[in-house]
TrEMBL record:
<dbReference type="InterPro" id="IPR032874">
    <property type="entry name" value="DDE_dom"/>
</dbReference>
<dbReference type="GO" id="GO:0003677">
    <property type="term" value="F:DNA binding"/>
</dbReference>
<dbReference type="GO" id="GO:0032196">
    <property type="term" value="P:transposition"/>
</dbReference>
<protein>
    <recommendedName>
        <fullName>DDE domain-containing protein</fullName>
    </recommendedName>
</protein>
<dbReference type="InterPro" id="IPR047930">
    <property type="entry name" value="Transpos_IS6"/>
</dbReference>
<dbReference type="InterPro" id="IPR052183">
    <property type="entry name" value="IS_Transposase"/>
</dbReference>
<keyword id="KW-0233">DNA recombination</keyword>
<keyword id="KW-0815">Transposition</keyword>
<dbReference type="Pfam" id="PF13610">
    <property type="entry name" value="DDE_Tnp_IS240"/>
</dbReference>
<feature type="domain" description="DDE">
    <location>
        <begin position="20"/>
        <end position="147"/>
    </location>
</feature>
<dbReference type="InterPro" id="IPR012337">
    <property type="entry name" value="RNaseH-like_sf"/>
</dbReference>
<keyword id="KW-0238">DNA-binding</keyword>
<dbReference type="InterPro" id="IPR036397">
    <property type="entry name" value="RNaseH_sf"/>
</dbReference>
<comment type="function">
    <text>Involved in the transposition of the insertion sequence.</text>
</comment>
<dbReference type="GO" id="GO:0006310">
    <property type="term" value="P:DNA recombination"/>
</dbReference>
Length: 175
């Protein structure tokens, strides 16, 4: 409910900004002792755009994830991925293969965005259902985007103003 409102306002503000660089990655998540894959798209500022849970790590899963992200957020200028061949196959089918960039440390932005999710996952003592994992991943991404104010980039006064604005918006949405 409130995460959807936050996502809608954030996406509507960023729709006109087409110079995006996306970072795509997948991570293993344990679900009742079985490994599933959480596909994630992160923009150049470190905000999570899309999360998608699948049981497989193949071209079909990558294609479904990318179609979902492209439909919701538009087309990026560049897509940075790791060396997984499923990305190349899916991008070829979508006609975006020339936008793909693969580099040794080029995908660190999305790798570092996994860390808050891992911390919260550990605190929750894992997941039991795929639907719960999908819902948690999308809500967690929306809320972390809303409250991640990158305080190392701004002075203390600006950080306080932004933090109080985020908390005020949160209270309006939660009430």
């Amino acid at each position: 409910m409130f995460a959807g409102d936050i996502r809608r306002t954030r996406v509507s503000r960023m729709r006109g900004f087409r110079h995006w660089r996306w970072h795509l990655d997948e991570m293993y998540v344990k679900l009742n002792g079985e490994m599933v894959y959480l596909w994630r798209a992160v923009d150049q500022e470190g905000e999570v755009l899309e999360s998608y849970v699948t049981r497989s790590r193949d071209k079909a899963a990558a294609l479904t994830f990318m179609k979902k992200a492209l439909k919701r957020h538009g087309s990026p200028e560049a897509i940075t991925t790791d060396g997984l061949r499923s990305y190349a196959a899916a991008l070829t089918e979508l006609g975006c293969r020339e936008r793909q960039e693969v580099g040794r440390w080029a995908n660190n932005r999305v790798e570092n965005s996994h860390l808050p999710f891992r911390r919260r996952e550990r605190a929750m003592l894992r997941f039991r259902r795929m639907k719960t994992l999908q819902k948690f991943a999308s809500v967690h991404a929306s809320l972390s985007n809303h409250f991640n104010l990158e305080r190392h980039l701004v002075d203390r006064q600006t950080y306080r103003e932004r933090r109080s604005a985020a908390l005020a918006e949160w209270q309006v949405l939660a009430s």
